């Protein structure tokens, strides 16, 4: 038997090894139970993959990013097998791994119930205990169609072979150059237990360390509202039971912080059915918090020489034809309104075309540049119903949108100062853990020359590197008109949120024929920098609400302090204190309800008010108050002026208490 040479790669080491022909990837890693797959020549393969001469092989551990994806996709197969054992009439859709878990779509007669999910989970446990083997085999298109004749959705996928994308998860089934089916085989008899069209790879067997089914929901086939509605089951799977428990604990904490739940409990906002999905209204308390956010942002922008502009909510379609949005972004826009004898008007999905018209409203000189235009501009995007999520993915929202027009010579310095401004302002709101992401050209969706994109991308890269933060690539993630830096922020429980974006654009100034008069009298094209700091005010509102778990720092709290009288005789004393506080710009209420003092304390703790000021006879006589903090600590006998000064200090320094 001849030998083959392979290279085993374990960063940073590489080992050359001679093995016999027919050796599998599994045989390179005997006894290493954590290794569940291999990367061979850069491609993920099952451990049963037979090695060829010259192969470079990297072990894939179950707790690595690739390993977890394989684990979760394998668990999705087990779930689908369980569903079809319980519901034989169920037709299979797609079951890809997703962040922290997996799902599988099914065409069934009626939606799954919580009892159904319990039954499926029990059946999955039985399958896992059997230790069935995942076995890959290549099939022709014709053979696949014959084998899967009773699976209409699989038959549709066969026609996508090699051309499927990750947009709807189809690439996990038919994303490769050949079709493959994975058989689940009985470990003793080798008998076929179940099979599925799949690209792979999979675990060696159904021995899943830890999993849990989470919920079910309706979902359109391949994400299109034109397609049939299927039933989707979501689950999660992890390398160890401890990892699963940590994830479930994390989800429990995240649920407590859900901005939709807090928005209702704290009476901040709502999304009425009468208005529509993704369209929020802010209640008075939410309005106070939002205004505080906006007012501070406005103040900082004014200090940085931004000029405020205002633009309408709708425009003729020709403006978005000129900008290119109707070519590249029409699917994300609301349908047109027919007005003015058949002229199409659109709700605006972004503000930049209108800001270009402001720049072009009169002649511009190099002396005016950089020109920084800023707007709290409300925009409308027709997000699919399946992705709308509270304030974080809305259909109507307000961007803190800026467009900076500068010369080519000013470009690098302006990007540097803009990114510094953005990060400093986010820190003022209490976010401190950042990394940066550089989104580069989508080769299938861009305007302008390759040279312009290369220059813009390199300039952004240098600006990002100056911040000394981690910089990660996002290949193909740019908008059609230019590359982008995104500020990614981690919240109090470690979740990552995309915050500010900065885009460098050589193309829209070209499309709008924007010019300024240079020092030598020539007409020159400005560079355009798109910059959204919050992203959207609504989304940033939600992120802060979840980051602080609703316990906002005093400067952002709708009510900064509440007076709690022990009896009716103490109400007027506290009302005088509240009037003094309001004169200093503070938001102080007095709870004059008929509730007993302890209930008033509980109620205001539930509302997460930063300071409670309790007053009885002794405080009135001494001209003091008793401070009670959110954590339950209390400080008695504080003179009124000192109490007022402490609240003012916390607000002015924007600290958490």
Provide an overview of this structure.
The protein has 657 residues and is an alpha+beta fold. It contains 19 helices and 33 strands. An eight-stranded mixed β-sheet has the order 16-20-21-28-25-24-22-23, sandwiched between helices. It has a five-stranded mixed β-sheet with strand order 2-1-5-3-4. Helix 1 packs across helix 2 (114-130), helix 7 (259-265) crosses helix 15 and helix 12 crosses helix 13 (450-465). The chain is globular.
Q: How helical, in percent, are the residues?
A: 25-40%
> What is the CA-CA span between the terminal residues?
74 Å
Unreliable parts: none
Count of distinct strands: 33
User: Could you describe the largest sheet, including whether it forms a barrel?
Assistant: 8 strands, mixed
Structural class: alpha+beta
- Average predicted confidence as pLDDT: 93
Strand percentage: 25-35%
The general outline is globular
Alpha-carbon Rg, integer: 30 Å
DSSP summary: helix tally: 19
Explain the layout of strands and helices:
Blueprint: E1 3-10, E2 13-20, E3 35-40, E4 43-45, E5 56-61, H1 65-86, E6 91-92, E7 97-98, E8 101-107, H2 114-130, E9 133-139, H3 141-147, H4 152-158, H5 171-174, E10 179-185, E11 192-197, E12 210-220, E13 229-238, H6 241-256, H7 259-265, E14 269-270, E15 281-282, H8 284-303, E16 307-308, E17 314-316, H9 317-323, H10 325-328, E18 337-339, E19 343-347, H11 352-359, E20 371-380, E21 396-406, H12 411-428, E22 433-439, H13 450-465, E23 471-474, E24 484-490, E25 496-505, H14 508-511, E26 516-517, E27 523-524, E28 527-532, H15 537-547, E29 561-565, H16 571-583, E30 588-590, H17 597-606, E31 611-615, H18 617-622, E32 624-629, E33 634-639, H19 640-652
Parallel strand pairs: 1-5, 16-20, 22-23, 29-30, 29-31
Antiparallel strand pairs: 1-2, 3-4, 3-5, 6-8, 7-8, 8-13, 9-10, 10-11, 12-13, 14-15, 17-19, 18-19, 20-21, 21-28, 22-24, 24-25, 25-28, 26-27, 31-32, 32-33
Helix pairs in contact: 1-2, 7-15, 12-13
């Amino acid at each position: 038997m001849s030998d083959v040479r392979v290279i085993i790669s374990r960063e940073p080491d590489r080992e050359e090894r001679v093995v016999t022909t027919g050796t599998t990837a599994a045989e390179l890693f005997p006894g290493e139970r954590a290794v569940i797959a291999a990367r061979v020549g850069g491609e993920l393969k099952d451990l049963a993959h037979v090695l060829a001469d010259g192969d470079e092989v990297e072990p894939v551990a179950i707790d690595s990013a690739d390993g977890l994806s394989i684990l979760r996709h394998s668990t999705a197969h087990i779930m689908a097998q369980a569903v079809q054992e319980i519901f034989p009439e169920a037709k299979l859709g797609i079951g890809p791994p997703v962040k922290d878990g997996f799902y599988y779509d099914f065409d069934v007669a009626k939606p799954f119930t919580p009892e159904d999910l319990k039954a499926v989970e029990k059946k999955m446990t039985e399958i896992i205990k059997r230790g069935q083997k995942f076995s890959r085999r290549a099939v022709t298109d014709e053979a696949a169609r014959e084998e899967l004749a009773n699976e209409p959705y699989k038959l549709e996928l066969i026609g996508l072979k090699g051309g499927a994308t990750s947009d709807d998860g189809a690439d996990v089934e038919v994303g490769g150059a050949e079709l493959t089916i994975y058989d689940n085989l009985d470990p003793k008899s080798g008998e076929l237990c179940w099979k599925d069209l799949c690209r792979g790879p999979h675990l060696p067997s159904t021995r899943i360390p830890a999993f849990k089914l989470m919920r079910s929901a309706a979902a359109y086939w391949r994400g299109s509202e034109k397609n049939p509605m299927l039933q989707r089951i979501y689950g999660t799977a992890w390398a160890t039971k401890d990892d699963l428990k940590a994830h479930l604990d994390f989800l429990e904490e995240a649920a407590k912080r859900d901005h939709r739940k807090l928005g209702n409990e704290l009476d901040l906002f709502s999304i009425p059915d009468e208005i529509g999905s993704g369209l929020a209204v802010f209640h008075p308390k939410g309005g106070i918090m939002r205004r505080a956010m906006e007012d501070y942002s406005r103040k900082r922008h004014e200090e940085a020489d931004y000029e405020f502009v205002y633009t309408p909510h709708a425009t003729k379609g020709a403006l978005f034809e000129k900008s290119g949005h109707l070519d590249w972004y029409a699917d994300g826009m609301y349908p047109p309104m027919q007005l003015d004898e058949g002229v199409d008007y659109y709700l605006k999905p972004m503000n930049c075309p209108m800001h270009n018209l402001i720049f072009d409203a009169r002649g511009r000189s190099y002396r005016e540049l950089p020109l920084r235009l800023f707007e709290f501009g409300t925009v409308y995007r027709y997000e699919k119903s399946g992705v709308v999520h509270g304030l974080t993915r809305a259909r109507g929202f307000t961007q803190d949108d800026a467009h900076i027009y500068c010369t080519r010579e000013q470009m690098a310095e302006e990007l540097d100062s803009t990114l510094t401004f953005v990060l400093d302002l986010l820190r003022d709101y209490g976010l401190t853990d950042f990394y940066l992401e550089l989104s580069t050209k989508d080769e299938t969706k861009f305007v302008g020359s390759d040279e312009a994109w290369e220059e813009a991308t390199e300039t952004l890269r240098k600006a990002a590197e100056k911040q000394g933060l981690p910089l990660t690539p996002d290949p193909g993630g740019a908008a059609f008109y230019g590359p982008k830096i995104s500020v990614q922020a981690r919240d109090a429980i470690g979740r990552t949120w995309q915050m500010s974006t900065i885009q460098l654009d050589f193309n829209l100034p070209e499309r709008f024929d924007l010019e300024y008069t240079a020092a030598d009298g020539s007409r020159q094209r400005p560079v355009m920098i798109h910059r959204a700091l919050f992203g959207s005010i609504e989304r940033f509102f939600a992120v802060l609400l979840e980051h602080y778990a609703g316990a906002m720092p005093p400067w952002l709290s709708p009510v900064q302090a509440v007076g709690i009288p022990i009896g009716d005789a103490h109400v007027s004393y506290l009302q005088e204190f509240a009037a003094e506080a309001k004169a200093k710009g503070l938001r102080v209420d007095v709870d004059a309800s008929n509730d007993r003092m302890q209930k008033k304390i509980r109620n205001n703790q539930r509302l997460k008010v930063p300071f409670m000021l309790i007053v009885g006879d002794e405080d009135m006589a001494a001209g003091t108050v008793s401070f009670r903090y959110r954590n339950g600590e209390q400080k008695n006998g504080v003179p009124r002026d000192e109490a007022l000064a402490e609240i003012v200090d916390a607000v002015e320094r924007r600290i958490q208490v």
